[in-house]
């Protein structure tokens, strides 16, 4: 029987890939990357309620994602098995981030689950231990546990903190959902960008290698990048479908977001330096 306790309400912020270079491919097919991750002050919200009976349940519907496939459920099982925890949890998801958007929504939901359950179950797992549990859930999940703007290498798990200036972003969703595996698997993807040094990172000197593939396959992405790019330099995040431009002021960002033509959607959002749950790893 479920125990009635308070709901632990937690944010799961989105990320942008400020650039993404594909530098190689591992024998198992995963790609070697260099990317700069930036957290955003915008995301999903998750609720966690302790259960004494040991069951892990997602209690809200997420269209297209059966509970057993949901990264929050998989994260909760991974942490419970690792810790030998006997209690369970009810998990509520309030989804705001477009799925298949390159904003890392599912990955961030999974990381927030690891951080929240570490606290709810009183496990005191270290950040390193949580990052190790995160990687098998998805290449982006360790970054959200790391919880700071980061330069990432490997498949995204080798993370170095990155100091970034305060910035606002316009994020545009062109109304399509992109399957990450199909973009990485494309024959035409170039996989030999020369590695850069972290100190050489600049928006103007980098690009997103996945963008050319996504543009060619999804005309809506190409059209949206061209629309935003006519106003300010615009780039795709991750494997798409969303794209973004960077601005120094909130006013500029809100002004541009307000011009976005339907049916595309646009948001003006602030870049974060730290994950709101940064202190929750032991
Ligand atoms: C492209 C990026 C950039 O941050 O983000 P998204 O666009 O998904 O948000 C990530 O590398 C995605 O990370 P994530 O979404 O966690 O991907 P995963 O579930 O691990 O992998 C999905 C599939 O993408 C391919 N994949 C993913 C990561 C990688 N470095 N090489 C790959 O080839 C693999 O085919 C894998 O089966
Ligand atoms: N909690 C979740 N939220 C969103 N997607 C999820 C979740 N759990 C599993 N998924 C799966 O992960 C896929 C990628 O979702 P998402 O992380 O939002 O996009 P992206 O990897 O492009 O940033 C979804 O299409 C869905 O099948």
From TrEMBL:
<keyword id="KW-0067">ATP-binding</keyword>
<dbReference type="GO" id="GO:0050515">
    <property type="term" value="F:4-(cytidine 5'-diphospho)-2-C-methyl-D-erythritol kinase activity"/>
</dbReference>
<dbReference type="InterPro" id="IPR004424">
    <property type="entry name" value="IspE"/>
</dbReference>
<dbReference type="InterPro" id="IPR036554">
    <property type="entry name" value="GHMP_kinase_C_sf"/>
</dbReference>
<dbReference type="InterPro" id="IPR014721">
    <property type="entry name" value="Ribsml_uS5_D2-typ_fold_subgr"/>
</dbReference>
<protein>
    <recommendedName>
        <fullName>4-diphosphocytidyl-2-C-methyl-D-erythritol kinase</fullName>
        <ecNumber>2.7.1.148</ecNumber>
    </recommendedName>
</protein>
<feature type="domain" description="GHMP kinase C-terminal">
    <location>
        <begin position="202"/>
        <end position="264"/>
    </location>
</feature>
<feature type="binding site">
    <location>
        <begin position="98"/>
        <end position="108"/>
    </location>
    <ligand>
        <name>ATP</name>
    </ligand>
</feature>
<feature type="active site">
    <location>
        <position position="140"/>
    </location>
</feature>
<dbReference type="Pfam" id="PF08544">
    <property type="entry name" value="GHMP_kinases_C"/>
</dbReference>
<dbReference type="InterPro" id="IPR020568">
    <property type="entry name" value="Ribosomal_Su5_D2-typ_SF"/>
</dbReference>
<feature type="active site">
    <location>
        <position position="15"/>
    </location>
</feature>
<comment type="pathway">
    <text>Isoprenoid biosynthesis; isopentenyl diphosphate biosynthesis via DXP pathway; isopentenyl diphosphate from 1-deoxy-D-xylulose 5-phosphate: step 3/6.</text>
</comment>
<keyword id="KW-0418">Kinase</keyword>
<dbReference type="GO" id="GO:0005524">
    <property type="term" value="F:ATP binding"/>
</dbReference>
<comment type="function">
    <text>Catalyzes the phosphorylation of the position 2 hydroxy group of 4-diphosphocytidyl-2C-methyl-D-erythritol.</text>
</comment>
<keyword id="KW-0414">Isoprene biosynthesis</keyword>
<dbReference type="GO" id="GO:0016114">
    <property type="term" value="P:terpenoid biosynthetic process"/>
</dbReference>
<dbReference type="Pfam" id="PF00288">
    <property type="entry name" value="GHMP_kinases_N"/>
</dbReference>
<feature type="domain" description="GHMP kinase N-terminal">
    <location>
        <begin position="71"/>
        <end position="148"/>
    </location>
</feature>
<dbReference type="InterPro" id="IPR013750">
    <property type="entry name" value="GHMP_kinase_C_dom"/>
</dbReference>
<dbReference type="GO" id="GO:0019288">
    <property type="term" value="P:isopentenyl diphosphate biosynthetic process, methylerythritol 4-phosphate pathway"/>
</dbReference>
<dbReference type="InterPro" id="IPR006204">
    <property type="entry name" value="GHMP_kinase_N_dom"/>
</dbReference>
<keyword id="KW-0547">Nucleotide-binding</keyword>
<keyword id="KW-0808">Transferase</keyword>
<comment type="similarity">
    <text>Belongs to the GHMP kinase family. IspE subfamily.</text>
</comment>
